[in-house]
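Per your request, structure below.
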């Protein structure tokens, strides 16, 4: 009986501890920057990579620039007379950590601006309306911050198209290919989903040759998945393009389109 009572007390304490740990609201949205990792973000915000994965419904440690994730940090509103140094000193933070948390490497701050305080536990309850550093309400975890809606299968489809079209090109070119699909989804004169855009056939012509020749069936890579997610989160090295082609193309119709940019061997156009 004593053993059972002790076990019950242990379970109760464990549940209480979990509740207390979970009671800290993830009150701020942190934007991923190049070379970030969940481990380093966890260190910065005094949490763990596993904790970040759980609280953001992430199925892997894969993250990409431009993605927003929830982090346990207080949000500070800049007041007249504040400086980055004074704010860091007031909260016993290093100036470097304050800069990292906000990707803020200059000294210009203005009253009303919001800054994340890394390592400072947020005061809002988990049921409260948490805010990002821009002051907007946090979106739901699924699709949070993406510029278009998507299905899980469509992320893989987009990554496979990128792999078929841009393997051997730079990462920016890969993201730009994904952005072309995203740009088409956003325009009223194109289909309104990723799968419909990629599989679109107009006047008997496939819009994307890998769909016709079967290369779209080849698996995605880690890089093309990262590029697909980056495009979904609004990264657009194509500069608003809705077409792309190889610089060796002799197709006069597509070459007549206004060029937005060239990345490596790939030309992007509107």
């Amino acid at each position: 009986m004593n053993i059972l009572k002790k076990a019950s007390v242990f379970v109760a304490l464990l549940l209480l501890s979990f509740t207390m740990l979970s009671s800290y609201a993830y009150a701020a949205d942190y934007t991923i920057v190049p070379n970030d990792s969940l481990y380093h973000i966890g260190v910065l915000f005094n949490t763990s990579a596993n904790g970040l994965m759980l609280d953001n419904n992430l199925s892997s440690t894969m993250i990409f620039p431009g993605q927003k994730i929830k982090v346990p940090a207080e949000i500070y509103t800049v007041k007249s007379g504040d400086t980055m140094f004074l704010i860091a000193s007031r909260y016993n933070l290093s100036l470097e950590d304050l800069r990292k948390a906000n990707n803020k490497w200059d000294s210009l701050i203005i009253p009303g601006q919001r800054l994340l305080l890394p390592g400072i536990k947020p005061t809002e309850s988990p049921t409260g309306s948490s805010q990002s550093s821009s002051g907007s309400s946090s979106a739901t975890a699924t699709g949070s911050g993406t510029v278009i809606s998507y299905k899980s299968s469509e992320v893989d489809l987009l990554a496979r198209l990128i792999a078929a079209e841009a393997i051997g090109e730079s990462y920016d070119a890969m993201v730009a290919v994904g952005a072309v699909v995203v740009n088409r989804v956003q325009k009223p004169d194109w289909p309104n989903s990723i799968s419909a855009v990629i599989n679109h056939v107009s006047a008997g012509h496939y819009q994307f040759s890998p769909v016709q020749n079967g290369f779209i069936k080849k698996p995605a890579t880690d890089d093309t998945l990262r590029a697909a997610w980056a495009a979904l989160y609004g990264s657009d090295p194509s500069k608003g393009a809705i077409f792309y082609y190889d610089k060796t193309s002799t197709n006069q119709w597509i070459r007549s389109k206004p060029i937005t940019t060239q990345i490596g061997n790939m030309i992007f156009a509107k």
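The chain is about 40% helix and 10% strand.

Regards,
D.
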